[in-house]
Design a protein that fits this description.
The complex is a heterotrimer of chains A (about 350), B (about 300) and C (about 260). Chain A contains 14 helices and 4 strands. Chain A is mainly alpha-helical. Chain B has a two-stranded antiparallel sheet. In chain B, strand 1 and strand 2 form a beta hairpin. The chains are: A mainly alpha (about 350), B mainly alpha (about 300), C alpha/beta (about 260).
Chain lengths: ~350, ~300, ~260
């Protein structure tokens, strides 16, 4: 008796939850943000080991870049091998402008705008250059940026020290205390939740449909008035924007900006996150980041030590071979299976009753 | 970049120019080997092999290990590593690339990233963490030409690279299997329908690419040590050569590799160190904007 | 409606690809609310004509004019992406739908050019953006109802049967309120009942959307049934343009390819 009562109640609760999400789809991201903040809180008070907080921070950063790259790769069918470099632009740019005495918010904004500007230029390049040639062109850009980061003096050689950040002019947050690190992390989680809403809004709008239109067939898209060049520029700009924001968050949380970290290997890792997580999926990016970065940092390193890299590589290959659509599609397949079972159960009931 | 291979005399401009030329021929050879490997796999296996450098490094490690453990000569271990490279290529194609044939293009490229991770992770366990050294083929000696210094090793490297690549070009153009490669490269589906053994073709491509990459690694190694990152520069330059020369031909990227090596050495010597590279890259980007399929590339025909 | 009235007029249009002349001095016109069929053997240049009209090829010789409400536009003055603004919408021989989007979303892409809001407004979901989205959504549902597939609106366009996909493509053209709809082999691959349904739909499109229809088709029975006039070409050159009955009996056309009718 109580068993079916419980079942009824939980089904009712789930239905109410699903309905809320349907009418207010942004609520889900709000909840996601809350969950992320809670995870950070648990690390902060000792439920998880305290180094988990940095791992979560990295996951947020990777998810954010992947979200932007997803718009480029998953929706518009364009590839960038420079994602990591643009995180660098965000982080180092913030550092440079902070050193010039600007307030944090302004420094961040300038860094992001610079990144988006370069992104727009890449988009313009794509008016003539396509396919593998465009992909390697982004590698050219990445290499140019790498040379600039490591050689130009204002980037400090090895790294730029950022130190305590001052937000809104008066909130000072350093990395010295657990509480402060938690607040920095919480800010990151909130930014991620907001950016997820941004991606959601883009996807569900005419712009999102246009991105998908040009990825499928530029000719039919053009015939419908979608300018492939305009949307390619937009896609690259948005992608670099997201990467730069991730870079700003890096500067915010880690309070320094290295010059040698932003290379091809990391850019490939971010592409892997998009592929493993699932094209066109928002949560997929999070899962991809968890699998590719989180798992190796949090668990595999303990068990396998340095072989964690091997495991990540194998995991990556296995996922692609068996789930080339990405983890997000496992969820969709599960949903389809659920509906199949539900309708079959209904059929059985009908057959029984007839 | 020079690794003490050539010496400069400040006043001797002809000598300097020749030094740059000889050095470019050597560096260009490593870029060309890697570029040929990349375009070979790109055209037959339809994959961008990001793990090209790692595979070369892996087999260079094998060579270094054999050399340090059993005292064989560099020539002997080079041959050993060619064999292991061949096997590596076959294994990778059979167990990883072939099963992924139906996967979308982007995902296929990411698989090669997985390869990098595996190789990078496994190396310390197979070879330990101490760096290895590989000696030059011809350890010393050279000649003076018009004030420049040309090492015998450099001559050998350029000759062996050209020979290797020449053999491959001859093979591709003149033999039946070469025809199979060319046909698979232009259209795999049609080739399969016409009975071309595309599976063997891709396997051979991966094996050959692995050998090319290993040869490049063995050439590069003496300048520093055998370490996981030693091929990064060559790898990136190989991609640039592929795009600059155009992926439509096999010879395009090879020629472009030498051009890039020469351009970089020249700008770095006559201008400044870092900005020389940046300048060359920017010029290539601008060039690509006007010739988006490379020097020797042709645009594919549009059909609606 | 004067006798010289037209919605589309081709004047001595020639299109060359290197040594190959795909269209050679072609002239014909389409009247408002007329259904015109363009027929010819394979390789006669029909799709090339379409691509010239929609400015996918803009290096043709001659003039293609589009007339709506007494405003005449030389189409060469316009880019590919502007043609739909003028009122010309088209379908493609290979169905170009986005498989990962729902049918409804695919149709809504057809109204892309009618939107006034941009990506920034979409990001912030301004009231204007939301209102536009809602209006286009409703219009899309109407278009789907028109084509009798509104019950499928939330399904993925990818897995749909061929006949449904063709309907989706046609519904998509209706979204921009076109004055000329260009259909590239709309009946290809359809069975008899689907072809009948297509006939009725095209008549209704002409009547309710007040549009002309230009179509390429190989199904001669369909063409002769539905078209007011038929333009026959061969090797890119004009053969004849007349009512279906007269075209059927035209000696040049018969000689070129009419062959057996089903």
């Amino acid at each position: 008796m109580t068993d079916s009562n419980f079942k009824e109640k939980s089904v009712a609760l789930w239905n109410r939850f699903a309905k809320t999400v349907k009418t207010h789809p942004h609520a889900q991201f709000f909840i996601f943000g809350l969950v992320m903040v809670m995870l950070g809180y648990f690390s902060s008070v000792g439920v998880f080991p305290s180094f988990y907080l940095s791992v979560f921070a990295y996951i947020i950063i990777y998810t954010l870049v992947a979200l932007g790259l997803n718009l480029l790769l998953g929706f518009s069918g364009l590839i960038s091998l420079a994602s990591s470099s643009f995180i660098g632009v965000g982080a180092l740019g913030t550092g440079v402008f902070l050193n010039l005495g600007l307030p944090f918010e302004l420094a961040a904004a300038l860094a992001i705008v610079s990144a988006a500007g370069i992104g727009a230029l890449i988009g313009l390049l794509s008016s003539k250059i396509s396919g593998i040639y465009l992909a390697i062109s982004t590698l050219f850009i990445a290499e140019i940026l790498r040379q600039i980061f490591t050689s130009v003096d204002i980037f400090g050689g090895e790294r730029l020290d950022i130190g305590t950040v001052k937000l809104l002019g008066f909130i000072e947050l350093s990395r010295n205390s657990r509480a402060e690190r938690f607040y920095l992390y919480a800010i990151m989680a909130i930014v991620l939740a907001l950016m997820m809403m941004v991606v959601y809004n883009i996807i569900k709008s005419r712009s999102g449909r246009a991105f998908m239109g040009i990825s499928r067939s530029e000719n039919s898209a053009a015939a419908m008035g979608i300018s492939p060049l305009k949307y390619r520029v937009m896609a690259f700009t948005v992608a670099t924007f997201f990467a730069a924001v991730a870079g700003v968050l890096y500067a915010l949380y880690f309070q320094d900006a290295p010059t040698r970290q932003w290379g091809l290997l990391q850019s490939l890792t971010i592409i892997a996150i998009v592929v493993v997580g699932g094209f066109k999926s928002i949560y997929g990016m999070f899962f991809g980041a968890v699998i590719i970065h989180g798992m190796s940092e949090l668990f595999l390193k303990d068990w396998l030590g340095n072989v964690s890299s091997v495991f990540s590589g194998i995991l990556l290959i296995v996922v692609i071979l068996f789930y080339p659509q990405g983890i997000a599609h496992v969820w969709i397949d599960l949903k389809k299976l659920y509906y199949k079972l539900k309708t079959r159960k209904k059929k059985d009931v009908i057959n029984d009753e007839s | 970049m020079y690794g003490g291979l050539v010496s400069f005399s400040g006043v001797n401009t002809v000598g300097n120019f020749l030094n740059i030329l000889f050095n470019s021929l050597q560096t260009g050879s490593t870029y060309a080997l890697a570029a040929l490997a990349i375009v070979l796999i790109f055209r037959t296996s339809k994959t961008t092999n990001f793990a090209q450098g790692s595979i070369g490094t892996l087999n260079a490690y094998v060579a270094a290990l054999v050399l340090s453990s059993w005292g064989w000569s560099i020539w002997a271990v080079a041959i050993v590593s060619m064999v292991t490279a061949f096997l590596t290529g076959v294994l990778i194609d059979t167990f990883i690339i072939r099963p992924a044939a139906k996967v979308n293009k982007i995902a296929k490229q990411i698989i090669t990233l997985g390869l990098i991770m595996i190789i990078t992770g496994i190396s310390p366990y197979l070879f330990g963490v101490d760096p290895y050294q590989l000696p030059r083929f011809i350890p010393q000696g050279g000649m003076e030409i018009l004030g420049s210094s040309l090492k015998y090793n450099t001559i050998f490297i350029v000759l062996i690279s050209l020979f290797f690549m020449g053999a491959i070009f001859w093979f591709i153009q003149k033999t039946k299997w070469g025809l199979a490669i060319r046909v698979t490269a232009s259209n795999e589906v049609t080739s399969k329908l016409m009975g071309v053994p595309t599976k063997t073709v891709t396997m051979m491509s991966w094996a050959t690419a692995a050998m090319l990459g290993t040869l490049a690694a063995i050439i590069v190694a003496p300048a520093g040590s055998v370490n996981p990152n030693m091929m990064f520069n060559v790898q990136v330059s190989a991609f640039f050569a592929g795009v600059f020369g155009g992926f439509q031909t096999f010879y395009g990227p090879v020629l472009a590799a030498f051009i890039i090596a020469f351009a970089r050495n020249t700008t770095v010597f006559y201008l400044t160190d870092i900005w020389g590279d940046v300048l060359v890259y920017m010029i290539i980007l601008v060039f690509l904007f006007f010739k988006p399929y490379g020097i020797f590339g042709k645009p594919p025909v549009k059909k609606v | 409606m004067s006798h010289d009235d037209y919605v589309l007029k081709l004047d001595n249009v020639t299109m060359r690809f290197g040594g190959l002349t795909a269209v050679n001095g072609l002239s014909f016109s389409i009247k408002p609310r007329e259904i015109v069929g363009l027929i010819g053997p394979n390789g006669a240049g029909k799709t090339t004509v379409f691509n010239c009209v929609t400015q996918f090829y803009d290096t043709y010789e001659g003039t293609i004019s589009f007339k709506v409400d007494d405003a005449i536009t030389n189409l060469k003055d316009r880019k590919v992406t502007e043609v739909i603004d003028l009122g010309i919408a088209r379908t493609f021989q290979n169905i170009e739908l986005v498989p990962d989007l729902s049918i409804l979303d695919n149709i809504m892409i057809g109204a892309h050019n009618t939107f006034k809001t941009g990506i920034v407004q979409h990001i912030f979901r301004t009231p204007k953006a939301r209102a536009e989205e809602k209006a286009v959504r409703e219009k899309a549902i109407e278009a789907l109802k028109f084509m009798h597939i509104d019950h499928l609106k939330d399904q993925f366009a990818g897995g749909q049967p061929y006949g449904v996909q063709k309907k989706i493509e046609i519904a998509r053209t209706l979204m921009s309120d076109p004055k000329l709809i260009i259909l590239d082999e709309p009946a290809a691959g359809l069975n008899d009942s689907e072809t009948d349904e297509l006939e009725t739909l095209i008549y209704r499109i002409r009547d309710e959307y007040d549009a002309s229809v230009l179509l390429i088709e190989h199904d001669m029975g369909f063409v002769m049934e539905i078209c007011d006039r038929v333009c026959a070409i061969n090797f890119g050159q004009f053969l004849a343009m007349d009512t279906p009955k007269n075209i059927q009996n035209h000696p040049d056309v018969q000689e070129a390819y009419l062959g057996k009718e089903d």
